[in-house]
Amino acid sequence: MGFEQILFWLLALGVIVTSALVVLPPGGKNPLYGALLLIVSFFFMSGLYVLLFAHTMAVLQILVYAGAIMVLFTFVIMLLNLSKKELGDETRTIAKGVGVVAVVALAVKTALVIETQTLNIPAKPLPAGFGGVDAIADTLFHNYLVPFELTGVLLLVAVIGAVVLAKRTL
Amino acid sequence: MNPVSDVAARAAEAAAPVAHSIPLYWFLVVAVVLFAIGSAGVLARRNALTVLMSVEIMLNAVNLAFLAFAREWGNMHGHVVTFFVIAVAAAEAAIGLALVLGLFRHKKSVNLDELTALRN
Amino acid sequence: MSPPETLVDKLDSPWLGVVLGVAAVLGMLTVNVLFLVWLERKVSAWIQRRMGPTEVGPFGLFQTLADMLKLLSKQLITPRHVDKPLYHLAPLVVFVPVVAAASLFPFSAGLVLQDLDIGLVLVFAFGGLAFVGIFMAGWGSNNKYALLGAMRSVAQNISYEIPLILASLSVVLMSGTMNLAKITALQSERGYWFIVLQPVAAVIYFIAALAETNRAPFDIPEAESELVAGFHTEYSGMRFALFFFAEYSNVFIVSMVATVLFLGGWSGPLLPGPVWFFLKVYALVGLTMWVRWTFPRLRFDQLMSFCWVVLTPLAILNLLITAFVARLV
After folding, report:
1. Can you give the pTM of this predicted structure?
2. Neighbours of B (≥3 Cβ pairs closer than 8 A)?
3. Are the CB atoms for C6 and C20 separated by under 8 Å?
4. Where are the domains of chain B?
C-alpha cells in the first residue's frame, strides 16, 4: 500500500470515528463534547479533501466550518448551559430503532450499488491548476454567477432572520 | 516518483484515462458511511443541538462525494457546488441556532419531542 | 514573474524540509516571545516613568528567560472541579494553530516555508481556531471568571474577524492574489506599499487586529480588574506559559500579516529582506504596545457597537470603493 493510501485510511477512520462519537454517547449525551468532536472530524475531512486535490476547499472547510459554524455552535451551547433536565430524555422507541436499522440497510445497499456503478468510470486527467483559487473562480463566475449572487442574498436573509429570531421570544 | 518524469508522463497520456492511487469508490464509501451516521443521528437523537450537528455531518458527506466526482471528471464544478453547500450550511447553522435559542426561551428545553404545539 | 524557490525546494526530502522549517519557526517564535515580553515591560516602564526589569542580564534582557525557567519548574496544579479532558487539551489547542500560522509567512524573497496560493486564507483559518482553545479553557476550568472571559473573548473575536478579513480583502482585490509572497513581490515591483492606496483598510485592520489578539484597549476578556485573569484564571505553571506564548505570538502574527499586506513585507532599499521584514513587524508590535499603555479599556457594549456600527460598515464601504476603482483603473 502506498503512502497516500495509508493516509487515506487513517483520515477516513478518523472522520468516521469522530463523527460517530458526535451522535453516540460522548457527544450525544453532552452537546459540547459533540461540537468539539465535530471540529476534529472536520479536520480529518479537510485532509480527505487535500487527497482529492481540493486544497482550496480544504482551507475553506477549516475557515468556515471549524472557525465560524462550530464556534457559533459552541457559543450557543455555552450560552444555554443546559442541565440534564433541559436536554430532555432520550427515549428509545421502536420507531427510532426501525429508522436506524433502515438507514444502516440503505447505506450498505448504496455502498454495494456504487461499487458496481463507479468501477467503469474512466478518470479524466486533471487540468493544470486543478483545485486552486483561479480554477474555482473561473467556474464560479462563468457558469454559476446567478447562484453565487443568490447565495449572497441567502446569507443576508440568514443574518436578518437570525437577529429577528434571537431577539423575539417565540 | 521523480516530479519531472511525472509531468512528462502526464503530458504523454493527456487524453488517456489516468489511474488515481485512491479509487473513487473508497471516497464514496466514506461519504455513504458519514451520511448514514448523520441521518441516524437526526432520526434517533432528540436534542436539537445534536440534530443540527448531525445535519452538518450529512452535508459534509455530500461535499466529499462532490469533490470525489470532481477529481474523477477532472473539472471544477464539484468544487463550486461544495462552495455553495458550505455557504448554505453557514446560513442553516445561524438560523437553526437562533431557533434553538428561541425554543429554549419558550420551553426551557431543547428537546424536539416537546415541540407539540401544533398537534392538538 | 517566476515563482521564487522556496526553502523546501532546496532540500532533497520535502518531509525533512517541513520538519526543519517548523522547528525553525518554533525557535523563532520562542526567542521572539521572550524578547517581546521583555520589550512590553520596558515599554510600559518607559511610558509610566519606571525602570522595568534591570537585574538579570544587560538591561534586564534575560528576565523573561528566568521567568520562563521558574514557570517550567513550577508544580502543575489541576483544580478538582475542572472538566479534565478539556482543561488539559486547551493550552495545546491554543498553541498549535499559532505555530502553524507562523510557518506560512515569506520572511524574504524565496525564504518561505510553504508557498501557497491561499496563504492569507489559511492564516485566517488558523487564527479562527484559537477561539476553540480559548473556549475549551473557559468552559473546562469550571470557574465563573474563566467562563465569562471565554464568552467575551469568543464574541469579540467573531465580531472583529469580519472587519479584519474585509480590510484584508481590499488588498487582495488590488493585488489579485492571496499568495503572501506574491502580494509582497507585487509591492516591491510597483515601488510603493499598499498602505499608500489603502490607508483606511490599514487602520481598520490595525484596530481589528488589536481586538483579535485581546490587546488593550480591547482586553476585556482578561480584564484583571473584573475577571481576575479571564479564561486562563485556573491555569498555572507551563500551561499558563503556553497561553502567554500564544498571546504574544498572535500579536506577532497579526503584525506579520499587516506587514505583508500593507507595508510591503521584505521589500525595502539597501538592507537585506529579512531585516526589513522584522524591522516593520517590530515597529507594528511596538505600536500595539504603545497603544496598550496609553488608552484605557473599553466597556463590552462599547466594544461590540464600535465593531458593528463603525468598523464593519466602514470596511464594507472601503471594499466597495476599492472594487469600483480597481475596475476603472
Report:
1. 0.83
2. A
3. no
4. 23-117
